[in-house]
Design brief:
The protein is α+β, with helices and mostly antiparallel strands. It is about 30% helix and about 25% strand. Helix 10 packs across helix 11. The longest helix has 21 residues. The radius of gyration is 29 Å and the shape is globular. The structure holds guanosine-5'-diphosphate and magnesium ion. Keywords: GTP-binding, Nucleotide-binding, Protein biosynthesis.
């Protein structure tokens, strides 16, 4: 039915593009006929991976709320690139990236998985043209695994944020969007699941503008045939892209054919293109000139370049929007084109920032000002050969602990003698590997801008920085010893489970497994309760701890019968009501046979919002506390006989240890502002070890907390969660009543989804107002008959649904889903999103006291 390249399209300079689309259309065919082995094809990609030039690399992440279709989209990308021969399905538990048994059983992504593939597939490119190598990380979408997203995002150069076309912007979408924002990651938006009943591209785009606070640049609009979603309209190139639902084979439909068969759609395409050009020409001089010169026929190349320029800073003032349905194979190839076209390669990203002492500087600033060799101030700075970042540590079983690394400067090889500036040790990898889902392949080097894994690093943890220097020194050059890339913050734990081993042998085995588990996932923490001797494992929520427990039993082979496993409970914490007096502590006992003496003064006060804003350079924020250290210079000296950075770190460590057990319930102390003043004059002798300094801070903090408790100035905090309940109207009163009277929660808003109002404006990410009434979106297919449909629904007894939003204690909500089921007959969805720690008062405090 459809013809292909038309002379008309060629006249508009689009022949080349159409040719490329046609080539892609055939890509799937070529790949499925190829004879390379089953499953993931490795050789060609492995090779291409480490040989790829930096301009040809895209390190991207797929981010979204749980169930938006991240894993499904990743799976389709692998298939269409020719990387896999079979399309895996989340619902059948056979996708490439969800390969852990737990993920396959539950149908959810728990750990982020990396895959690499080429786009466009090499087999379809003309001679001499190179494919781009896409390193893609599929991330989990459940809020309990948000640390997993947070540690991967900073090492990526771009992200595709997926929205469910029915559900729109969900709570975790907003959160990961914000995380991407903090790392300035350029983003694309992909509205998925448009095949589903109730999908609305219009609403999804409006919500993106209103809630993600970005101006949507519609590069595609959906192609509906009556009510059925059949393809997408490429607004920039003015063609229709239609897909075969089974194979995903793509047919390019020229504008003229659209004009004949679907004139309304062709008109909408022209309108969308004009809207896009209009918006771009406000921002981009190149477009403006071409627009004025050539009227509406701005070339697709010019439009694409303008979009690229607008998003590359990662501020997300504007975001290109694409449409599709990954499950039914619609829109995946053009989305891959967009990744290649719009997202930056590693060399186009802002320069790496390094923390050196109490300052943050760019890599080149650092190299310019890097201290010269001692005694030779006019020499060039000592060179640094490579800088890389460990963003994840995984226990892979047979191969042992594997450290995932991204290189920023220089390259790493197996003989690299790497300085870990967080752990202050040199390490050497055994092997360097390229990772693709559960497969690993040895590679000789990891060049700049690449992502890989290493075995053999004994100490590296998530967030550590690795540096290499010329020669084989025994010690890192002084200037670089403590240079670091910012590590991701671990959010405070909100829930825990106790484990009580029956025997010492069982206890030792569990402790070993806990150590390894928390090294893999630093958002899992553990300690031994001094009084009960129980092992306490804490984490980000019910699901997180269930999965942790599962991993202990299945991966670390702990036998369940060797210990008593408690229920999952919420983690309380403690806080101060008023500032304490300054507490001075002098620690002068021998430590491991070494005599020494160190002293400091500590003052604690409740943390106010202003403390976050005025974080001084020598402050750190950890587990909800801000710790500030000052090291005064003694009179009559202008040089301190010790390394201030090391002492600062030791004092921080002491304070962190002191805050980890509060005086009321031995729960961690939060929302506390700690001032520590070191006392260097106090006989600080060379013999004093770091332990003396750490202990001086630890005991001073403990003494201050103890006194505050005696003065009744310590309160209990409990984690709250923000909830959204989507439920039938008839159940909503009972639910609201239950939450506010029996659960200690608060309902903030109840609304009908169809009452969403997009007539106002919002503050955009870039600081400008976004007037929602000016955001262009095409109408949904059933819009004209919406009211008829609604009537129909009512008559056929369809249920009216409501959203109830608010906050409540996590303790009450952790298992609320089951309770809701009895109130709604299962016709609800409950979404929880992390809230703040809030003070326990009144009856809840009394009940807690009774629990002990
Ligand atoms: P993730 O949590 O974001 O990784 O989402 P998944 O890829 O695991 O998908 C969640 C569910 O949505 C699965 O049941 C998928 O089959 C389904 N799904 C994903 N994409 C689509 C789509 O385009 N259309 C429809 N109807 N379902 C989809
Ligand atoms: Mg997933």
């Amino acid at each position: 039915m459809f013809t292909t390249v038309s002379s008309h399209a060629c006249r508009h300079g689009q022949g080349k593009l159409l040719l490329r689309l046609l080539v892609l259309k055939n890509a799937r065919l070529c790949n499925s006929n190829s004879s390379i082995g089953k499953g993931i094809r490795s050789y060609a990609t492995e090779h291409a991976h480490h040989e790829a030039r930096i301009e040809n690399i895209r390190n991207i992440g797929i981010i979204a709320h749980v169930d938006a279709g991240k894993t499904t989209t990743t799976e389709r990308m692998l298939y269409h690139s020719g990387r896999t021969r079979h399309i895996g399905n989340v619902d059948h538990g056979n996708t490439t990236t969800d390969f852990l048994p737990m993920e396959r059983e539950r149908g959810i992504t728990i750990q982020s998985a990396a895959v690499t593939f080429q786009w466009p597939p090499k087999s379809v490119l003309p001679n001499g043209q190179e494919s781009k190598t896409i390193n893609l990380i599929d991330t989990p979408g459940h809020q309990d695994f948000r640390y997993e997203v947070d540690r991967c995002l900073p090492i990526l150069d771009g992200a595709v944020c997926i929205m469910d076309g029915v559900k729109g912007v969900e709570t975790h979408t907003e959160r990961v969007w914000q995380s991407a924002h903090l790392s300035n990651i350029p983003r694309l938006l992909y509205v998925n699941k448009l095949d589903r009943d109730g999908a609305s591209f219009k609403r999804a785009v409006q919500e993106a503008a209103a809630r993600l606070k970005t101006w949507p640049l519609l590069c595609q609009i959906p192609w509906w045939q009556k009510d059925e979603f059949v393809g997408v309209i490429d607004v920039i190139h003015e063609v229709g892209l239609r897909f075969s639902k089974n194979s995903g084979a793509m047919t390019v439909v020229p504008k003229e054919t659209l004009a004949t068969h679907n004139p309304a759609l062709k008109n909408e395409m022209e309108k969308a293109r004009l809207q896009l050009i209009d918006k771009l020409s406000d921002q981009d001089e190149g477009i403006m000139e071409e627009y004025l010169e050539r009227d509406i026929n701005v070339s697709s190349g010019t439009i694409k370049k303008a979009i690229r320029r607008l998003i590359i800073d990662g501020e997300a003032k504007f975001t290109p929007v694409f449409a599709g349905s990954s499950l039914t194979n619609i829109g995946v190839q053009p989305l891959l084109e967009a990744v290649v076209d719009y997202l930056p390669n590693p060399s186009e990203r802002p320069e790496l920032r390094l923390i050196t002492g109490s300052k943050t500087v760019t890599f080149s600033e650092f190299m310019e000002t890097a201290p010269k060799k001692k005694g030779a101030p006019h020499q060039k700075p000592e060179p640094v050969l490579s800088v890389s970042h460990v963003f994840k540590v995984v226990d892979s079983g047979a191969r042992g602990l594997m450290s995932w690394v991204r290189t920023y400067h220089g390259s790493l090889s197996r003989s690299s003698h790497m300085w870990n500036s967080n752990m202050n040790v040199f390490e050497k990898p055994q092997n360097i590997m390229h990772v693709s889902a559960k497969d690993y392949h040895d590679i000789p080097t990891l060049p700049t801008g690449h992502i890989g894994a290493m075995t053999g690093l004994k100490q590296a943890r998530t967030g550590d920085t690795l540096l290499t220097f010329p020669g084989h020194q025994a010690q890192a050059p002084e200037a670089y010893r403590s240079v670091r890339i910012k590590a991701p913050e671990t959010p405070p734990a909100v829930a825990f489970i106790s484990i009580e081993p029956y025997t010492k042998t069982a206890g030792d085995k569990i402790v070993d497994a806990l150590q390894r588990l928390s090294r893999e996932d630093p958002s899992i923490r553990w300690h031994k309760d001094e009084r009960s001797e129980q092992l306490i494992l804490s984490g980000m929520g019910l699901l997180h701890l269930e999965i942790a427990q599962d991993r202990l039993l299945t991966h670390y082979k702990i036998e369940k019968e060797t210990a008593i496993w408690g229920d999952i409970e919420v983690e309380y914490s403690e806080c101060l009501f008023a500032p304490t007096r300054p507490h001075h502590h002098e620690y002068d006992r021998a430590l491991r046979g070494v005599a020494g003496r160190a002293a400091c003064t500590v003052l604690l006060e409740p943390l106010e919002a202003c403390h976050h804003d005025t974080l001084l350079e020598s402050s750190i924020e950890r587990d909800g506390n801000v710790i500030h250290v000052s090291i005064p210079l003694p009179e009559d000296t202008d040089e301190l006989p010790f390394d201030t950075e090391t002492v600062r770190q030791q004092l921080f460590n002491g304070a962190i240890a002191g805050l980890s057990r509060g005086p009321r319930r031995s729960a961690p102390v939060r929302k506390c502002h700690v001032h520590i003043t070191f006392d260097p004059e106090k006989d600080w002798s060379k013999n004093s070890t770091g332990g003396h300094i750490t202990n001086a801070a630890l005991f001073a903090v403990r003494a201050a907390l103890k006194e505050a408790h005696e003065n009744a100035q310590v309160g209990i905090l409990e984690p709250f969660t923000n909830f959204t309940i989507h439920c039938p109207e008839e159940a909503s009163h009972a639910i609201q009543h239950d939450i506010s009277s029996a659960r200690g929660g608060q309902v903030m808003e109840v609304r009908k989804p169809e009452e969403d109002d997009y007539s106002g404006s919002v503050d955009g990410q870039g600081g400008e107002r976004i007037d929602l009434t000016r955001v262009y979106v095409p109408p949904d297919p059933y819009e004209g008959v919406q009211s008829l449909r609604d009537e129909g629904k009512k008559m056929s007894g369809s249920v009216r649904m409501l959203h109830i939003m608010g906050k409540a204690p996590l303790k009450e909500m952790m298992k609320y889903d089951g309770h809701l089921r009895s109130m709604t007959g299962g016709r609800h969805t409950l979404t929880l999103d992390p809230g703040e720690f809030e003070l326990v008062t009144g009856p809840r405090e009394k009940a807690l006291a009774l629990e002990g």
